[in-house]
């Protein structure tokens, strides 16, 4: 047994359900239809969900979130700071834009994330799973900043 065998690695439980994956797939398919581009699912290690492509050329980075609440139920969308920091790192290193796409039951919206300085960052997260790792810095994006995904070629 090598030196690595001395350590026990704890992995977090995976909370993503088949329903969650289906909703994500539905949202990205709608984005493909609207943008005229194809998506490419990124490995989990990338921390963001998709790259959008024009043929083989990657044109943007995409994080997809699906919410069960109505679009205007809360004044902000709260999202883990690490998700957005990962997307921003890809944009900064590649020069390709990073978009957050959110599918609510009554709205499919997007926002280009270029900086976190314009948003409030608050301690928060889920408390319904008794998982201490669910409480973390959360970025709060005002709902009115989301644009409706329509027939255009942004993301």
Note the gap between the termini.
48 Å
Helix-strand string: HEEEEHEEEEE
Number of strands: 9
Low-confidence stretches: 1-10
- Which structural class should the secondary elements be placed in? alpha+beta
Q: Give the overall shape, derived from the CA principal axes.
A: globular
The rounded Rg comes to 17 Å
Strand content: 25-35%
Number of helices: 2
Main-sheet strand order equals: 1-2-3-5-6-9
Describe the protein's architecture and organization.
The chain is α+β, with helices and mostly antiparallel strands and 155 residues long. It contains 2 helices and 9 strands, in the order αββββαβββββ. It has helices at residues 18-35, 81-94; strands at 38-41, 50-54, 57-66, 76-80, 98-104, 107-112, 120-125, 135-142, 147-148. The strands form 2 sheets. A 6-stranded mixed β-sheet has the order 1-2-3-5-6-9, with helices on both faces. Strands 4-8-7 form a 3-stranded antiparallel β-sheet. Strand 2 and strand 3 form a beta hairpin.
């Amino acid at each position: 047994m090598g030196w690595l065998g001395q350590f026990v690695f704890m992995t977090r439980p995976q909370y993503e359900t088949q329903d969650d994956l289906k909703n994500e797939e539905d949202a990205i398919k709608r984005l493909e239809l609207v943008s005229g581009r194809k998506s490419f699912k990124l490995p989990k290690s990338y921390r963001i969900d998709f790259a959008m492509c024009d043929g083989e050329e990657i044109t943007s980075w995409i994080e997809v979130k699906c919410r069960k609440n109505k679009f205007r139920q809360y004044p902000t969308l709260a999202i883990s700071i690490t998700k957005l920091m990962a997307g921003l790192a890809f944009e900064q290193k590649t020069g390709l834009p990073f978009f957050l796409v959110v599918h609510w039951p009554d709205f499919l919206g997007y926002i280009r994330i270029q900086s976190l300085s314009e948003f409030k960052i608050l301690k928060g997260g889920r408390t319904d799973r008794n998982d201490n790792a669910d409480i973390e810095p959360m970025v709060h994006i005002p709902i009115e900043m989301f644009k409706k995904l329509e027939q255009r070629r942004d993301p």
